[in-house]
Amino acid sequence: MMEMMLTLFIISTLLMITAHAIPEKHENSTDQEVKNIAFFFQVAQTNALNKKEAHLVEFDRVNHRITIKNGFGQALEVYSLNTCRILQGGLPGFLYKSNGDTNAFGTIRFDCMGEQVSFIFQIQKGRFRIER
Questions:
Q1: Which of 9, 33, 84, 98 is the most exposed, fewest CB within 10 Å of its CB?
Q2: Of 24-38, 61-75, 113-127, highest mean pLDDT
Q3: The domain containing residue 88 runs over which residues?
């Protein structure tokens, strides 16, 4: 009985050690973060279209957050980045007009666990593309 208990103890200890040593798969979390950012921009555009009012998208480079504000400056949605960081330079923010168009064009760059990801915005119809 003691031998069996000792064997189970050793096996469970080895399993606990190896389970913590398994590396995390960061590619999947980076891909998910990029999808979440793109979805957040689409939410801002959809809200502007549905409410027929402009919505401002601001980038907080210190706290690594993206905020959607209404025309009165009230924050409607806030997305805190998990695996990506907003890089300096690029767009400080932009406006989705009531018709879904943006008021600015340019690029916002993110560092997602060492991978550079750029969201490039066009003025017409609020379109953007993602470059990796």
A1: 9
A2: 61-75
A3: 28-131
Instruction: Kindly provide the b/e burial profile for residues 18-53, where b requires at least 16 CB atoms within 10 angstroms of the residue's own CB.
Output: eeeeeeeeeeeebeebbeebeebbebbbebbbeeee
| Residue 25: partners with Cβ closer than 8 Å, 6 or more residues away | none
* Residue whose C-alpha is closest to residue 79's, from 38, 29, 125, 131: 38
**In the structure encoding, which two tokens stand for residue 17, read together?**
């050690």
Instruction: Please check the confidence at residue 25 and state whether its pLDDT lies above 70.
Output: no
Return d(Cα 3, Cα 24) in angstroms, integer: 35
The residue among 71, 69, 80 whose CA lies nearest residue 43 is: 69
Structural contact between residues 119 and 91, judged by C-beta atoms closer than 8 angstroms: no
Q: Does residue 107 belong to any structural domain of this protein?
A: yes
The one-character DSSP state at 53 is S
The whole-angstrom separation of Cα 7 and Cα 24 is 29
Residue 20, domain member (yes or no):
no
Residues 36-85 have pLDDT tens digits of: 999 999 999 988 988 999 999 999 999 999 999 988 889 999 999 999 99
